[in-house]
Design brief:
CATH superfamily of one domain: Vaccinia Virus protein VP39
CATH topology of one domain: Rossmann fold
Largest sheet: 7 strands, mixed
Number of helices: 11
Distance between the termini: 33 Å
Number of strands: 10
Structural class: alpha/beta
Strand content: 15-25%
Strand order of the largest sheet: 3-2-1-4-5-10-6
Radius of gyration: 19 Å
Shape: globular
Length: about 270
Amino acid sequence: MGNESQKEFWNGPAGDVWVEAQEMMDRMLAPLSEATLAAAMPKSGERIIDVGCGCGATSLALAESGATVWGLDISEVMLERARSRAEGNDNIVFSVKDAATADYDPEYDLIFSRFGVMFFSDPKAAFANLRSALLANGRLAFVCWQSPKENLFMSVAAKAASPFMSAPEPQDPRAPGPFAFAEKAWTTEILESAGFTNISITSLTPSLSVGQNLEEAMYFQARVGPLARAIAELDETVQLQAKQAVSEALLEYETDDGIVIPSAAWLVQAFNSS
């Protein structure tokens, strides 16, 4: 899916669903958001770009430091939610822009992203362009997913539903999408090609709450998760069977805090030393 296709996707039903699920998604991703924010160390007076800011949770968190934040996303509907959440906050601005190709002046201290950089059609060019926004010794900090097999909160449901669906066509693991940066070596190559230095990639493996109860967890799988489109394409009878199988699989991860399943992400940091 190229950048134009991404724009169409995130300004269509997908964007509407993410706005609808904003509170649930922010709660689910909180452990990874907090770890990445802590590593990024935003400071008062800094200027920060939040790439793929979505509904604004990370932009709001970055602004709490006293920094000035420019949140970029290609989804107008998600930015509408972000603007409403940031109303009255004078140090956040949101823009509908493709961060991969936007024009920048070299005046930013930090480029930050929570799962917003894996969708570039040309990641090496995109990161070279992002580096052009940084001051000398400016910082890059983002979080991205490790492989699907390491992310049980995604793969458990997929495995349970697989008997009811056609086998997916093989895909390039580096193609734009949630898992495009699953390979540490590939991510390092991208950043080195873009001119970044002092690259570090650290594993984060928190368990994530995919729902406060089974009903909410099933909503995630049917509406937001990677299975959403595949399940929606099944006929009604098979869809019910697939959902029942997924429900039974998720119940194995039920805790007093809801449905809690292991995840795996990379915390990536680098610098603009030029």
